[in-house]
Task: inverse folding
């Protein structure tokens, strides 16, 4: 809609159609001193992009929510200021609390998926959308993961329509869906930026990660055997070179029928959580001393 000018009581206003093309402009105009505008729309009720949605669908988030990818949190501006540090500052929350909320949304759901269901994803930065309310993390959305979901070495047969998700991997490689995809590909880059631009040091960030793991494991002692078998606090893990996989075959990064055959390795990586093994690693509950012992 072409902007028009009108005069009311000698004041000049800009008329803006509030449809999709001018909504952003209307929002940006609000804080401009000396600029007055009417926001007009031909419809009497809100109807956001009606022709772009299925008739039975609805918006999952308020249309004015702030959405950023996990990868975008690492972006820096022309002054080398990161987006995540700016969001933390704007939220008004202490940095540790903001990061704890972020970890509760990002890491916490992936732990039960792995330990309870042997279900894994490839939760890299551009596939996860962080939803913010007043700059505070409130939700995470996952997208574009259809070919990156797998059930690892599942003991139970899957229904025919999802049978292709069943994947057999060497036991050592299974935990890399967390240690590599999250700890190495995301947190390894996030930690030093937080150290430089917030009050949270690298060690404190990894302690928050360890806290998150410890709290989940403490709440699910029935999975004790898996916590020991797949130790998130072990000293190191295998380095899988994702870029080398892509360069080896730029048409299909992973052969879904045999996911291991494309993998490329380059030594090992020290696990930052190993420093917290004594204080945070899962410990089996001790038998009550009054309880009779079986032979």
Result:
């Amino acid at each position: 809609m072409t902007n028009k000018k009108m005069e009311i009581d000698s004041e000049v206003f800009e008329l803006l159609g509030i449809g999709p093309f001018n909504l952003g402009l209307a929002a940006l105009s609000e804080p401009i001193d000396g600029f007055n505008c009417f926001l007009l729309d031909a419809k009497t009720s809100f109807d956001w992009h009606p022709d772009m949605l299925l008739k039975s669908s609805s918006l999952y988030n308020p249309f004015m929510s702030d959405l950023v990818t996990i990868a975008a949190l690492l972006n820096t501006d022309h002054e080398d200021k990161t987006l995540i540090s700016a969001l933390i500052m704007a939220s008004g929350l202490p940095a540790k609390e903001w990061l704890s909320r972020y970890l509760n949304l990002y890491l916490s759901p992936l732990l039960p998926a792995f330990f309870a269901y042997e279900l894994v994803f490839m939760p890299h930065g551009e596939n996860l959308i962080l939803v913010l309310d007043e700059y505070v993390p409130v939700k995470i959305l996952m997208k574009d993961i259809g070919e990156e979901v797998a059930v690892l070495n599942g003991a139970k047969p899957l229904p025919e329509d999802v049978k292709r998700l069943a994947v057999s991997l060497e036991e050592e490689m299974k935990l890399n869906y967390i240690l590599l995809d999250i700890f190495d590909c995301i947190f390894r880059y996030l930690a030093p930026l937080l150290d430089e631009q917030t009050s949270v040091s690298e060690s404190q960030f990894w302690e928050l990660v360890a806290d998150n793991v410890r709290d989940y494991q403490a709440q699910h002692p029935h999975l004790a055997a898996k916590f020991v078998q797949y130790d998130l606090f072990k000293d190191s893990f295998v380095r899988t070179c994702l870029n080398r996989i892509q360069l080896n075959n730029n048409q299909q990064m992973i052969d879904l029928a045999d996911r291991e055959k494309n993998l490329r390795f380059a030594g090992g990586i020290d696990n930052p959580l190993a420093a917290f093994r004594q204080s945070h690693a899962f410990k089996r509950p001790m038998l009550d001393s009054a309880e009779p012992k079986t032979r």
Q: What stands out?
A: Residues 206 and 264 are 27 Å apart (CA to CA). The longest helix spans residues 95-117.
